[in-house]
Design goal:
200 residues, alpha+beta, Alpha-Beta Plaits, 2 domains
């Protein structure tokens, strides 16, 4: 199984283009999220912003190695809205993201096929307008060692192009470093060969 070192997400909340279909208006919104609680708060706020909207359909995906996701049709026919929105999240290979499409009903029913096309197109345009970024998937290593081994530790860090995210210099040297998934096992083995070193 291939180990992934990066994931893609959005950097900030953004509005997509508005789509009009037979009098109905669809407004797309994209948000970076990291918890279900964030999702709930955003949905509450959006519904307050659009009190006259008939539907507030959405899909989200969370996690960088193990994924959670949810889709919601919010009263639209089953699988006509949340699933097409989620399909666009998968198409762009994104995570830690929420897409909400707000629909103002225009009086004409679109049918399941028309709804699928409208929600998919709105989600797609919203992602085209979003700022998408690639971020590293890292595991954290905590190192504790005697100062006499500093040069050996630094040699391992330098040869693997690792950076120190936190350091405490007291009686012993304590470092926190982020290691890419694909490097993790190799780096940990190298560090464990250095005397007086605790690797957590």
């Amino acid at each position: 199984m291939q180990v992934e070192d990066f994931y893609k997400t959005v950097t900030e909340a953004s509005k997509g283009s508005v789509i009009k279909e037979k009098g109905s208006k669809f407004l797309g919104h994209v948000f970076p999220v990291s918890t279900e609680q964030e999702v709930k708060s955003i949905l509450v706020a959006l519904k307050k912003q659009h009190p006259a909207a008939r539907h507030c359909c959405y899909a989200w995906r969370l996690g960088v190695e193990k994924f959670q996701y949810r889709v919601n049709d919010d009263g639209e026919p089953s699988n006509s809205s949340g699933q097409p929105i989620y399909g666009q999240i998968l198409s762009y290979d994104l995570t830690n993201v929420l897409i909400v499409v707000v629909r103002y009903f225009g009086g004409v029913k679109l049918g399941v096929g028309g709804l699928v096309r409208a929600y998919k197109a709105c989600a797609q345009l919203s992602l085209q307008n979003a700022a998408i970024i690639q971020r590293p998937i890292e595991k954290i290593l905590f190192l504790e060692f005697d100062y006499s081994n500093m040069s050996k530790v630094m040699r391992v860090l330098k040869s693997n192009k690792l950076t120190i995210s936190k350091q405490i210099l007291l009686e012993y040297c304590v470092l926190e470093i982020g290691v890419k998934n694909s490097q993790y096992d190799t780096v940990k083995k190298h560090l464990q060969t250095i005397p007086l070193l605790k690797v957590v």
